[in-house]
Amino acid sequence: MRRLTKKKALTLVKELDAFPKVPESYVESTASGGTVSLIAFTFMAVLAFLEFFVYRHTWMKYEYEVDRDFSSKLRINVDITVAMRCQYIGADVLDLAETMVASDGLQYEPVNFELPPQQRIWHMTLLHIQERLRVEHALQDVIFKAAIKGAPPDSTASLSACRIHGHLYVNKVAGNFHITVGKSIPHPRGHAHLAALVQQMETYNFSHRIDHLSFGEPLPGIISPLDGTEKIATDSNHMFQYFITIVPTKLNTYKVSAETHQYSVTERERVINHAAGSHGVSGIFMKYDISSLMVKVTEQHMPLWQFLVRLCGIIGGIFSTTGMIHGLVGFLVDVVCCRFQMGIYKPVS
């Protein structure tokens, strides 16, 4: 009884076979079929190889959400060289709440404003990258994934200029980071700079080079828009202004996973001439504001299951297509040959 049940089950399974085998006596191999098979296998190998490269490739996914963190401090990373002596200039931050931030984290180092050859090469390379980033925005994805570090080499000490570098923490509100004449001192209504103790205005020179300016924790893979910027003052009484919009960023790649900030910037410069109605103070002013939106940048790649499905689609599609084309071409050849033979043997009336 059990044997009969197994036999019936086996017979039922055989009837459900979707891939019946044809006896070898009914199979005929042809040269054309072998040629088509060789071409099909070649196409399969090439496309499978290219599909594997697509599977290995990664891309950056951008998402946006509201930034709900307003209580933490914002870190400002500064590395700026000004063509004036360190004792004549001062740098500090004044935020929107008229709160003066102590600049204890900044160091004033006497340096030479002119770069040595090694640093000049780095500076020109950085400017070239910045130029390409403005044209080809997809280049930023490559920099994210490569985690390029953008630290210039140390400069040679001299006394003709001042390198202001370091970091400071500010409230997460709009503010103004500036470098101007005289050291800053606290004031009941904000702050002031002791410009009266500096020499004549003719000695002012706010030509500067921004080796690095970023917000948040410094991370490899982010080249800030102002990195490598160099401005030459045409007048002793010159004002440089940078209007910066900061965007909180969560970066998650296979090499880096952290929170930082990116920013966009617009620039303006003018000569201070009170007689002509151009008022202001000589110096370098960076007015920043913080966006309420956060950008999440995530590196992704194709899942394994999707790669296998696409691979099966390639193999099955080429098999089906080449089989149909081979059958159609064979049928057309047979029809043409048959008609040709009928035309030869047609009786003459």
Automatic annotation (TrEMBL):
Endoplasmic reticulum vesicle transporter C-terminal domain spans which residues? 160-325
**What does the UniProt function comment say about this protein?**
Plays a role in transport between endoplasmic reticulum and Golgi.
Q: Where in the cell is it found?
A: Endoplasmic reticulum membrane; Endoplasmic reticulum-Golgi intermediate compartment membrane; Golgi apparatus membrane
Q: Which Pfam families match?
A: COPIIcoated_ERV, ERGIC_N
Q: Which domain of life is it from?
A: Eukaryota
Q: Where is the Endoplasmic reticulum vesicle transporter N-terminal domain?
A: 13-98
Q: Which UniProt keywords apply?
A: Endoplasmic reticulum, ER-Golgi transport, Golgi apparatus, Membrane, Transmembrane, Transmembrane helix, Transport
Name used for this protein in its record: Endoplasmic reticulum-Golgi intermediate compartment protein
Q: Which residues cross the membrane?
A: 35-55, 307-333
Topological category with respect to the lipid bilayer: Multi-pass membrane protein
Instruction: Reply yes or no: does the keyword Repeat apply.
Output: no
BP GO annotations? endoplasmic reticulum to Golgi vesicle-mediated transport; retrograde vesicle-mediated transport, Golgi to endoplasmic reticulum
Indicate the principal place this protein occupies in or around the cell: endoplasmic reticulum
Q: Name one GO cellular component term.
A: COPII-coated ER to Golgi transport vesicle
Family according to the record:
Belongs to the ERGIC family.
